[in-house]
Amino acid sequence: MDTAAPPLATGDPQELVDRVQELQARLEASPDAATRDVAEELVSAVVHMYGAGLEAIIAALHAAGDAGGRIAGDLAGDPLVATLLLIHDLHPVPLADRVTQALDSVRPYMESHGGNVELISLEHGIARIHLRGSCSDCSASSVTLELAIKQALEEAAPDLEGLEVEGVAAQTAGGPGLPMATGLPEPPTGLELPVVLAGPAPAWVEVPAALGVPDGALTAIRVQGRDLIVASVDGTLLAYGNRCAGCGGTLEGGRLEDGALACPGCGRSFFLPRAGRALGDEALQLEPVPLLREAGHVRVAL
């Protein structure tokens, strides 16, 4: 029986990473200790060889001055190249800058839901952040904010060794004792950024149609069986479930003015920059959907 592995895919960086991890798992499961030892030594030697080559390339780029530095930065913007550079501790953008950029990328979304995040310090690879905002009284908004922060940090700074979160408190959304974000000043938890979800973790899905929404406009889209609306308010894209919290009807065709969306069915208005709360009745709120916009791509978490 032919057990040879198929060649690695070359089109999708994530496929490459997944394939390498699959082969590593198969190697570790091999019952032949001698073969396993030789293979592991070979892998280590190849990794060090590529690392030495990458180090020489990055050194030459930096020696070329500002132009070389810009090329190194552009290369690091490729997910696969960034992974290789991180493996060998060669990423040209300092960890602190990448953490700051990640938090900046989600700040407009957080502000639209009444929240914010502050980087307090970054020492020994551990970031201390403070979550704050009026969104803390809504578990759905808290979950989406935490999910957006965690996703952004995992993508921009996978080499971050730890995260200490201030402004969190124990609540029961998805399980007893799990931490949720609040606006209260509390000592650092020393825990990984909490993501409290009742059920399986959501997946991020790209939605190219959202890129074409002009400022002040609204569009309805269907993503993996979910009906959503995406609105552009002052240049910020916001996503919600396409269902009125008052009458249950669809929001498509509703009037969007100064961030307030009027339901075409019952006429209730929901202020999108404040987590979709109903004007005059904050007990009613649209269903917020996490949305990230970066590098010409828009994704939602479902």
Key terms for this structure?
Rieske Iron-sulfur Protein, four-stranded antiparallel β-sheet, GMP Synthetase, Chain A, domain 3, 6 helices, 302 residues, alpha+beta, five-stranded antiparallel β-sheet
Short description, anyone?
This protein is of the alpha+beta class.
**CATH topology name of the largest domain:** Rieske Iron-sulfur Protein
How many discrete structural domains? 3
Distance between the termini: 42 Å
- Average pLDDT works out at 76
Note poorly predicted spans. Answer: 135-140, 169-200
CATH superfamily membership of the largest domain, which one?
A: Rieske [2Fe-2S] iron-sulphur domain
Number of helices: 6
How would you characterize this protein structure?
With 302 residues, this protein is of the alpha+beta class. It folds into three domains: 13-87; 95-181, Fe-S cluster assembly (FSCA) (GMP Synthetase, Chain A, domain 3, 2-Layer Sandwich), CATH 3.30.300; 204-301, Rieske Iron-sulfur Protein. Helix content is 34%, strand content 26%. It contains six helices and 17 strands. Strands 10-11-12-13-14 form a five-stranded antiparallel beta sheet, with no helix packed on it. A hairpin with a 5-residue loop joins strand 12 (269-271) and strand 13. Helix 2 (33-63) packs antiparallel against helix 3 (66-76) and helix 5 (95-112) runs antiparallel to helix 6 (139-156). The protein is elongated. Mean pLDDT is 76; it is low at 135-140 and 169-200.
